[in-house]
Amino acid sequence: MLYYDDSYATECRTVVTGILDEAGRKYLVLRDNLFYPQGGGEKGDRGTLEWEGGTVRVLKALRGPDGPVLATDAEDPALLVGKTVHCSLDWAFRLHQMRLHSALHLLHSLIGDALGREPANPSLSEVEEGFAVNRYPASDVDPVDFSEIERRMNEIIAKGEPASVTPDPKNPGFRVWRAIGHEIPCGGLHVRDLSEIGPVSLVLHRKKGNVSVKVFLESESGSEH
Fold it and tell me: What is the CATH code for 95-217?
């Protein structure tokens, strides 16, 4: 998929090869896909498809039975089958997703450093509107000083550290994120260097035996902590 070949690519030309009709909604299928489908805690990409004489908005990329499919605002998506289209990604939206998703991996890695062991996998790991969140069992992370985690996150982000995602040689079809000496299995999209995340702040919410750790990007004004 193009989004794995180069997660920083913002445009491509391809062909609409078919339609997925599901629950009365028609989704476009492309030969080559620039748009990352919703999953793994990241929201599906948005953008536009253009061709000679027309344009439609890509509202969301989703996972279909045989690969990504696109929800669009086309009145009759079937009319686009066979057309060569120019795909343009909503880059600001994609980069926002990658920054926050990468921040969650950094958070998880530093929690592990603080505990001296691998923490429990988050029961929830999502990029939401304006923030991202990992949810942990309180009993697993209670020893952690999250003010120190926030300080370390910002220290590493300010310095910059390369991050990579490569296929997992032990598990074909899976991918592994690597940075600051940690490895996390993940099929999502990420920034190439942790400096791209930008300064962050953490907010904790405790409820029903869980701790939700929210990550906010300080560059975004108007975030409600």
Answer: 3.30.980.10
